[in-house]
Amino acid sequence: MPITNTTDLSALLQQMLAQSQPLYSTGKVADYIPALAQVAPQQAAVAVATLDGRLHSAGAAQQSFSLQSISKIFGLVMAMNRLGDELWQRVNMEPSGQPFNSIVQLEWEQGIPRNPMINAGAIVVADVLVSHYSASKSAFLTFLRRLAGEEALYADQQVYLSELEHGNRNAAMAYLMKSFGNIEADVPQVLEHYFHQCAAAISCEQLARSLLFLANRGVQPSTNEQICSRRDAHRINAILSTSGMYDQSGEFAFKVGLPAKSGVGGAIVAIVPQFGVITAWSPPLNNYGNSVVAMQLIQQLADELGLSLF
Ligand code: DON
């Protein structure tokens, strides 16, 4: 185990948080979803949950933020559990090398998204959920609550409505995929599900706990429940390593070396197999849509503790 001393880890998190604050000004809060533009930029948090049940954190680690693209992990687990290997005929597992909301590849590649971590891929996953659950939005929240062990998790209505109103680019992708036969349900219903899962509100501490099963071969350590198969946990970590940070995934693997996922709400989650989960949050983003402070916090922690898988 790379971490042995609880006090040292908490002190390290505090120290890293203080050092990373000058980076606030180098990023910009997402404003293409107007509700996200209202979030105060100068906030940050970091949390580490370990398989043995410990939780360390610093900063605003109990404050909720918008889950955004990190919801793609939870949706993917649900769709893999429902559809099995058939899912991989509808979405690929290759890095896209394009921004998360790029549309160009979709036409070249006949409506099959490059991977489930870009918006187009997550919209296909949303279609699977809408088609396989009678109430997919509440099924998603129930799954999230079960994993986080928190009944109170909710979807932020203001963010949800803001995305619905400003989601033309996602709608364009969904209709293009529908024209290729890769969306089964009605597009508005699929988009509603997708925006609703993106609008889930969660804190760093809750998020770190909720994804521990990915560091533990599919088993949630607090309940011993098999959330996904060992093979699927491996596959999801592989996809996060190659595509979780969008077109900055190569740089993230180079500098950090952990499966990870970002969201435009400013959070990043990194999986440390056989050890635990790191989450960091701070709203200002770089040009790729990844939080500058959260990137720095995770990179520094992985470095200090020697967590890289490579
Ligand atoms: O669909 C969107 O654009 C947002 N709801 C989610 C995008 C996102 O979080 C990309 N992350 N870096």
Automatic annotation (TrEMBL):
Alphabetical keyword list: Acetylation, Hydrolase
Gene3D superfamilies per UniProt: DD-peptidase/beta-lactamase superfamily
Domain of life per record: Bacteria
Binding site residues for substrate: S69, N119, E163, N170, Y194, Y246, V264
Protein EC: 3.5.1.2
One matching Pfam family: Glutaminase
GO molecular function: glutaminase activity
Catalytic activity line of the entry: L-glutamine + H2O = L-glutamate + NH4(+)
GO biological process: glutamate biosynthetic process; L-glutamine catabolic process
N-terminal signal peptide: none
Family, as annotated: Belongs to the glutaminase family.
PANTHER family in the record: GLUTAMINASE (PTHR12544:SF29)
Subunit structure: Homotetramer.
Protein name listed in UniProt: Glutaminase
Organism: Rheinheimera pacifica
